[in-house]
């Protein structure tokens, strides 16, 4: 939770040992002093400060706090913390659309000369993104059959940095062996990304 000392602890849910269903409605929620049941929504682009010095310290990174909603916003943070809790993940970064998530993943983690392996069974716009844009930046891409573990292993190169797939795939709903492919990624020292469009963490 963010460092907000004035926030009343007594309003917050104790999620120690909470199960999936409880996390699905409570994780990441930070109640305001109003004591609301459901999470508050913060439709703000920017934030107020008690002084220019406090603003300067916050913008400068010497003090925790929101400065602009493109970076942090309490509504988005609730979503991110809840999704991370449901995935059993360390953290989550939310984007405004699925395509921007895939684009951000590639741009943040790949550079010219890198290689990625991608399932052939991916959303059409994902293929367009990779073929039309990522290739422009000299990223090598090998497509493999989603269900063919030998093909995933066989496609690994020295410069492989990312293995990417959809499971269940859209539109054929083929289901990948995530554990086996994650092992291939791990032994290649590459990242493994799963576009989990249909299942949500509840069913994946
Ligand atoms: C599997 C999959 N990935 C990514 C996307 C893109 O998501 P968005 O439309 O939010 O950009 C879609 C959209 O349907 C999808 O089905």
Entry summary:
It contains eight helices and four strands, in the order ααααβαβαβαβα. It has 204 residues and is of the alpha/beta class.
Explain how this protein is built.
The chain contains eight helices and four strands; from the N terminus they run ααααβαβαβαβα. The protein is α/β, with parallel strands linked by helices. The chain is globular, with a radius of gyration of 20 Å. A four-stranded parallel sheet has the order 2-1-3-4, sandwiched between helices. Helix 5 links the parallel strand 1 and strand 2. The chain folds into two domains: 79 residues, no CATH class; 106 residues, 3-Layer(aba) Sandwich (Aspartate Aminotransferase, domain 2). The two termini are 26 Å apart. The site of pyridoxal-5'-phosphate has 9 residues, from helix 4.
As a percent range, the share of helical residues equals 25-40%
Query: What is the CATH topology assignment of the largest domain?
Result: Aspartate Aminotransferase, domain 2
Uncertain residue segments: none
- Major sheet, described briefly? 4 strands, parallel
- Order of secondary-structure elements: HHHHEHEHEHEH
Structural class: alpha/beta
Task: Tell me what the CATH architecture of the largest domain is.
Answer: 3-Layer(aba) Sandwich
Small-molecule components bound:
pyridoxal-5'-phosphate
Task: Tell me the span between the first and last alpha carbons.
Answer: 26 Å
- Kindly provide the name of the CATH class of the largest domain: Alpha Beta
How many separate structural domains? 2
Shape: globular
Indicate the mean pLDDT.
94
Radius of gyration: 20 Å
Order of strands, main sheet, comes to: 2-1-3-4
Number of helices: 8
What oligomeric state do these chains adopt? single chain
